[in-house]
Design goal:
210 residues, alpha+beta, five-stranded antiparallel sheet, four-stranded antiparallel sheet, 5 helices, 11 strands
Length: 210
């Protein structure tokens, strides 16, 4: 079986959605994120925007080949909020995505079943309001070479239509000679072939960017 080298995520933060259930208001949002650290400023921003909300429940999934996820009930009964939200992230088959649903209590208790369906519906609405896009899983390589070999490197980049992420030149102190450094991004399924091409060229060093 061939490994998939694409994944689905959301293009940009969704519009705010509102679900009303027995006077309680559920506001839902979806955000593209690359790491867990990005979540805190998002939650801080939403807390400022909705000072009357009692619960800021969320779930996220991050990663392409190795997935990590988290679901947080933020004080709601166990598994009544975070997991239903996470279930929708799975249903829409997206990753690098966080969904936050916050609740303003309207005076009538919904019970665990009512909460589960409300958080699930709000998460679903937030993801429906998002533009879902397909992205490729890429590998970043760093190529370093004596400046005199610049043309060889650029020829391969041009022929194979490779994407340059960054390009710089360094002068080596000992010799005073310039060294070229280029970072390229390659779709995973093509990465090995491209690596071998550069690796076989004399005086050119290529390695995966950590």
């Amino acid at each position: 079986m061939k490994h998939k080298d694409t994944y689905n995520t959301i293009a940009n933060p969704s519009e705010q959605i509102l679900l009303k259930e027995k006077n309680s208001k559920f506001f839902g949002y979806a955000f593209p994120i690359q790491s867990e650290e990005e979540l805190k400023p998002i939650l801080d921003q939403l807390r400022k925007k909705h000072p009357h909300a009692g619960h800021f429940c969320y779930a996220y999934q991050i990663g392409t080949e190795i997935l990590s996820y988290r679901a947080n009930d933020d004080g709601e009964p166990s598994n009544s909020a975070g997991m239903p939200i996470y279930g929708q992230i799975q249903a829409f088959a997206v990753t690098n995505t966080a969904v936050v649903v916050l609740r303003i209590f309207g005076g009538t208790k919904l019970g665990v079943g009512g909460l589960i369906s409300a958080y699930k519906a709000a998460a679903q609405m937030a993801l429906e309001a998002s533009k879902i896009i397909e992205k490729t899983i890429d590998v970043d390589y760093k190529i370093s070479f004596d400046y005199k070999n610049m043309n060889k490197v650029m020829r391969v980049i041009k022929e194979k239509k490779l994407e340059i992420v960054s390009q710089e030149m360094e002068i080596i102190e000992e010799t005073g000679l310039p060294i070229g450094l280029i970072e390229i991004k390659i779709r995973k399924k093509n990465a090995e072939v491209i690596f071998d091409i550069f690796n076989s060229i004399y005086e050119i060093d290529i390695k995966i960017k950590e």
